[in-house]
Amino acid sequence: MFTVFFPLIAIMLMQIMSAHAGTVNLGGGFSGGEFSVNVSSIKERRFKTIYKQQYDFSCGSATLASLLSFHYDDVVDEFKVFKDMYSHGNQNKIQKEGFSLFDMKLYLSRRGYRSNGFKISLNQLAKAEIPAITIINNKGYMHFVIIKGSDEKEVLVGDPAIGIKVYSRAEFEKMWNKQILFVIQDKKDIASNHYQTQEEWKLRVKANLGLAVDHSSLALFNVLQPSAIDF
């Protein structure tokens, strides 16, 4: 039995793993004829509602573009935000330190939004039901992220470097250290609809597995274990 199915399994593996995302057609050798399976890589799912930063010092522009696009239905790409903030900002400082919350505030003002930074707790943010940009210290690396939701035990974060990730409250608060939470003060009704969504909670990275391996090679899991990531 093993010798019969081994070649078939090998063919399936090659077909699936060569298609990182999209539709995989499987046929020949199945009595039911051909059928197709939609395959989406783990990496693509992680970056479904957060833009992946394209430059070393662009986490600020990627984070802000993601906040507008995925939480306020105001679609804009990272490059346009980057170009605008860079052209209006202190370019020497930006090249050394990246964008600041003040750069973001000025950009949002030019786009017609009111925004500000507040010293509030995660519980207060959850009651307000709006996302916030903040800064975390990840092993000495200061980095902008979006807080997309939280509960008593965990925090849902959109990180332009690694995608959607869920941290324990203790782990996140250690990196966050009660930094300012930067929020948009307009269109709360729209933001609330995209805050604390179950779809994003299910995109979580578990046990850092996704950070240690080639994500495209795990596309097979979408076929073999649909229940683990189905939403």
Please provide a written account of the structure.
It contains 13 helices and eight strands. It is α+β, with helices and mostly antiparallel strands and 231 residues long. α3 crosses α4 and α4 crosses α6. The longest helix has 17 residues, at 2-18. It is globular, with a radius of gyration of 21 Å. The two termini are 35 Å apart. 33% of the residues are buried. The model is unreliable at 1-21, 23-32, 35-39 and 207-231 (pLDDT under 50). It holds the Pfam family Peptidase_C39. One of its GO terms (molecular function) is ATP binding. Residues 53-183 form the Peptidase C39 domain.
Observed structural traits:
single chain; 231 residues; disordered N terminus; two-stranded antiparallel sheet; 4-stranded antiparallel beta sheet; 2 domains; Cathepsin B, Chain A; alpha+beta; ATP binding; peptidase activity; Peptidase, C39 family; globular
Q: Which class of secondary structure composition applies to the elements?
A: alpha+beta
User: What order do the helices and strands follow?
Assistant: HEEHHHHHEHEEEEHEHHHHH
Number of strands: 8
Helix content: 40-55%
Strand order of the largest sheet: 4-5-6-7
Q: What fraction of residues sit in β-strands?
A: 15-25%
Cα(first) to Cα(last) distance is 35 Å
Name the CATH superfamily assignment of the largest domain: Cysteine proteinases
**Overall tally of structural domains:** 2
Distinct helical segment count: 13
Gross morphology is globular
Furnish the topology, listing elements before pairings.
Blueprint: H1 2-18, E1 22-26, E2 35-39, H2 42-46, H3 59-71, H4 78-88, H5 91-97, H6 101-110, E3 115-118, H7 122-128, E4 132-138, E5 141-150, E6 154-159, E7 163-168, H8 169-176, E8 181-184, H9 188-193, H10 198-201, H11 209-212, H12 221-224, H13 226-229
Antiparallel strand pairs: 1-2, 3-8, 4-5, 5-6, 6-7
Helix pairs in contact: 3-4, 4-6
Organism: Colwellia psychrerythraea (strain 34H / ATCC BAA-681) (Vibrio psychroerythus)
GO molecular function: ATP binding; peptidase activity
Keywords: Signal
